[in-house]
Amino acid sequence: MMKRLLLTWILLLVVVGMSMAGVLRMKATSIAYKVIENEKQTEWSEWMDCELLVTIDIEGDRIKIYSNEIQIYDVYDHEEEEPDGDGGASQLFYCVDAKGKKCELRFRLDADALLQVYIEYPDMKIVYNLD
């Protein structure tokens, strides 16, 4: 019960901080990915260290990840926060990337307070661990 309450407060602080601040800045510290072909998914890759800036512009409805090629995601809709079966919670954003492809970004806070962002396309999934 206490863990769930702490998790809810942390997620609430992130959401309130995002709404009060024009732009929220975080750092991605590691990345993993999987490929989807013919409706079959590979296993997640090994975690690779990275040091990337991730920004969420609340007023502009835009999320950016500053990798070698800057990833820009314009948000056109979202769903409310949902608890998951692992004791965490997540919030889903429906987006269009800079190339016009639709994708989903899911910010997930797990039971151990690890914050992640999942980027999901029909043929690939990417996950970043965030600080």
Provide the fold topology.
Blueprint: H1 2-20, E1 23-37, E2 40-41, E3 48-57, E4 62-66, E5 70-78, E6 82-83, E7 89-97, E8 102-109, E9 115-121, E10 124-130
Antiparallel strand pairs: 1-2, 1-3, 1-10, 3-4, 4-5, 5-7, 6-7, 7-8, 8-9, 9-10
Largest sheet: 8 strands, antiparallel, barrel
The amount of beta strand, in percent, is over 45%
Number of helical segments? 1
Q: Mean pLDDT, as a whole number?
A: 86
Using the CA coordinates, give the radius of gyration: 15 Å
Helices and strands: which structural class?
Answer: mainly beta
Sum up the structure in keywords.
131 residues; mainly beta; 8-stranded antiparallel barrel; 10 strands; disordered N terminus
Structural summary, described in words:
- By secondary structure, this protein is mainly β.
- Helix content is 15%, strand content 56%.
- It is built from 1 helix and 10 strands; from the N terminus they run αββββββββββ.
- An 8-stranded antiparallel beta barrel has the order 1-3-4-5-7-8-9-10.
- Strand 8 and strand 9 form a beta hairpin.
- The radius of gyration is 15 Å and the shape is globular.
- The two termini are 25 Å apart.
- Residues 1-7 have low confidence and may be disordered.
